[in-house]
Design goal:
Helices cover 77% and strands 0% of the residues. It is mostly helical. It has a single domain, classed as Ferritin (Up-down Bundle). Helix 1 runs antiparallel to helix 3. The relative contact order is 0.17.
Length: 133
């Protein structure tokens, strides 16, 4: 493979990683938006569960982003428009699957481990939210 082809692949991968991280930031923000709109029976427990998940996810997001910068150099991260999810369980399940689908962007075992932590935090959130329904 030529140096030009390799550089083109790296640039394309960097753009995909930036888009992925932007989607993660958007997902984290969507949880906070939902968190602020919780009312009714069991709302305090849901509120606390979301806060705990958001704290975990933000920590992991920071680790993934900094590791990606270390590997790829500067990354252009664009956060898509974020809306309050209507069904938080379905929203979290869908995003869990999205993260699984995008693991191919991170071939190193240590970045895979960071993604494991991210998906684990989503699974813990899903467990709590399902138990509270």
């Amino acid at each position: 493979m030529s140096a030009t082809t390799e550089k083109t692949k790296t640039i394309a991968n960097t753009a995909k990683v930036g888009a992925f991280i932007g989607r993660i930031v958007s997902f984290n923000t969507s949880l906070k938006l939902f968190h602020w709109h919780i009312t009714g029976k069991g709302s305090y427990a849901q509120h606390i569960s979301l806060d705990e998940a958001i704290d975990s996810l933000l920590d992991v997001t920071d680790r993934l982003t900094e590791t990606s910068y270390s590997l790829l150099g500067d990354i252009e991260i664009t956060v898509p428009e974020t809306k309050t999810p209507e069904n938080i369980v379905k929203h979290a399940e869908t995003f869990f699957n999205y993260v699984g689908d995008e693991r191919k962007l991170f071939p190193e075992s240590y970045t895979q481990a960071i993604l494991d932590d991210y998906q684990e935090a989503i699974q813990q959130l899903l467990y709590r939210l399902r138990r509270l329904q």
